[in-house]
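Q: Structure tokens for this one, please.
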Amino acid sequence: MKWMGEIPSHWKTVRLKRTVNLVNEKSTGNGIPYIALENIESYTGRLLPLSNIEPDSTCNSFKTNDVLFCKLRPYLTKCVLAPYDGKCTSELLVLRNFSGDTDFLHYILLSPNLVADINASTYGSKMPRANWNYIGSCAIPIPFISEQRAIVSYLNNKVSKIDKYISTAEKKIAALDELKQVTIADAVTHGINPNASMKDSAIPWIGMVPEHWEVKRAAIMFSENKNKNSKYEFSHAFKFNCGTLVPKDETGDVSEYRDTYEAYTIIKKNDIAINCLNLNYDFVSQRVAISPNKGILTSAYLIITPRNGVNPYYYNYLFKAMDSKKLFHGMGTGIRLTLSYTELKKQFLPNPSFTEQDEIVAYIDRKVAQIDKMKVLELAQIDKLKEYKQRLISDVVTGKVKVTNE
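A: Here is the predicted structure, written as tokens:
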């Protein structure tokens, strides 16, 4: 009972497994709504839009009003009340026939204190999981059913208001992200001088460009980097993270990665990397990044090196603009719709003078920094609201905030 602290004297405490049934029904059927971990928002219990991708493995089957609770440690904060019959990843426990109000159970399982208790019990090195024997043995508070319903009504009202504030902030962030994309695309394709004479670029997605700009094929400005790490010069790799390259998460002895990393590509500082795989997967975002330093990156990605007279930061922004407009989709080939250098090098691109490229990059950097500053403020507001929401749920389901039946 440590996780819940003191509770009202007339409330009971019961082990979770004595209040609910763990269901292990399996489903292999197609065309059934499928809930993956990424479809559940952490700590909120909110179900996010589903994808159309069918899982290859056997799934757990669930029914309307079942509670789905994740047992995988990084995602213990994911719990949702099923709004329909369907199937889900086997990492979600399916809990049915709660002896009280199911919405009340849902709120209990969203309590960060209970989640922290369960988290401490997880085992395994790479993908730690919680055991149902431990989860089921956790004590939960059980008020009278009338109090449970009053608590649910109170939390539904409060949470709904908090979620509206969060939604408003999220819309502001989406608008700022769109403004950033528009700012970048406009600057790299039309320049930053509003009084410049314009001409037709003959590039359909760009249209008019400043009259003094040249237009060149990508092959003139870039070469493909296929320099393999065959001598194991580098033992640590980069990975994509929201349009940037960051050190890859590596656990265990680095020697375990040798066979894999010897096939990686050695990237130089200012090389541009494009995640060119599965271009039809819209959930893969921000496919373009510039290398901050020398290192290695999986050879599955397209890596290009700028030639002399090319500002890599200008073209990093240009390719990001192309990515945001999903222009790479039309260049992909094969079943997996993959972009190759053979296709990319044919593309005509704007080529301002090197001095103007520098000026455009400085302008975009300044504008992006201003937009990101506003975005940070909105994100901080969302974090505060989510923290308040978690604390409120925990305090209410444990009786620390009194809720009347009225």
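A few notes: The radius of gyration is 26 Å. The first strand starts at residue 12 and ends at 15.
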